[in-house]
Design goal:
- By secondary structure, the chain is an alpha/beta fold.
- It folds into two domains: 2-155, Elongation Factor Tu (Ef-tu), domain 3 (Beta Barrel); 166-307, Rossmann fold.
- It is built from eight helices and twelve strands.
- The protein has a six-stranded antiparallel β-sheet with strand order 4-3-6-1-2-5. A six-stranded parallel β-sheet has the order 10-9-8-7-11-12, sandwiched between helices.
- The two termini are 26 Å apart.
């Protein structure tokens, strides 16, 4: 972006580079799948299916409400084109935002995964963490009801019910949003018998996003879903439902039976956490990279793991 302050030629080269980077990112995320090439089923209700939005490039949606969740996270609800529309996206799909910063001409693209049910009519909701100097998250947090943002579906990977007997999911921070989308889709499908074990790490208890929602899923599906919350700093009021410390080999083996046939391990979170658990992603985040970290110590291979 600093190239904007140099010559017009340098700015043009920067723009081309940005578009090229986005094109490569979009190509990878929309083609690289870890489950199967069979697309996930869309809503079975024929009435709901008829109301599915027809996404044509980037679509402008108006912010309906903004709620401060904690010190750096907002819940943002956008109105769909009409009250009868549903997003119609399948797991795991994010919505890619596009905006051009004031005074610039190179657009900024950032993906955010909705936390609202994909079959809810009229609105779509995100939980967005604001990062220091974050161009995408900063823009999202600055919006007030009535202002608009452009969105486009970005399908990250296909999911096929019952392809795996069980899943271990290790998530950190705002990396929980695609995990919530997938977990809810699995558990809300009575035909899907997949069992899920979730380890969700954060700095403090205040940072645990969607805590009540995950607790409710565990109450409703105790035979299929279990969770473990862990934080770096534990409050004095903790009732024992939250552990303290980083995700370790010992913590994983506490909730997971170890490598068996029919398993899949998903890792979603900030790069340092992904690196420690499963090894860094490759190609500037465009490829899965080699397996490493705690999961390699536990005997898992590249084929057993998917990194978000």
């Amino acid at each position: 972006m600093a190239a904007l302050r140099t010559s017009f030629r340098a700015a043009t080269v920067g723009a081309v580079g940005a578009v090229t980077a986005y094109s490569g990112y979009q190509y990878y995320t929309t083609t690289h799948v870890f489950f199967t090439k069979a697309h996930a089923e869309l809503p079975s209700d024929s009435k709901a299916a008829l109301k599915k939005m027809e996404w044509k490039g980037f679509t402008e949606l108006k912010l309906k409400s903004s709620e401060q969740v904690n010190h750096n996270v907002k819940k943002l609800t956008f109105a769909l084109p009409d009250d009868d529309s549903i997003t119609g996206i399948s797991p795991i799909t994010s919505l890619l935002t596009q905006h051009t910063p004031e005074g610039g001409f190179i657009p900024v693209f950032r993906p955010y995964t909705p936390i609202s049910d994909n079959n809810i009519a009229g609105t779509v909701t995100f939980m967005v963490k604001k990062y220091p100097n974050g161009k995408g998250s900063g823009k999202m947090h600055s919006l007030v009801p009535g202002e608009s943002m452009k969105f486009k579906p970005l399908h990250e990977c296909d999911y096929k019910p019952n392809q795996f007997k069980s899943m271990l999911i290790v998530a950190g921070g705002s990396g929980i949003t695609p995990i919530f989308q997938l977990t809810r889709a699995i558990l809300n499908n009575p035909e899907d018998k997949t069992k899920i074990s979730l380890i969700y790490a954060n700095n403090t208890e205040e940072d645990i996003l969607l805590r009540q929602e995950f607790e409710e899923l565990e109450r409703k599906h105790p035979e299929r879903f279990s969770k473990l919350f862990t934080v770096s700093k534990l409050s004095h009021e903790n009732d024992g439902s939250i552990e303290q410390g980083y995700v370790t080999k010992q913590m994983i083996t506490k909730v997971w039976p170890g490598k068996q046939a029919g398993q899949k391990v998903l890792v979603s979170g900030p790069p340092p956490m992904v690196d420690a658990i499963a090894g860094a992603k490759g190609g500037f985040g465009w490829t899965q990279g080699s397996i490493g970290g705690v999961l390699k110590e536990l005997g898992y291979t590249k084929e057993d793991v998917h990194k978000f």
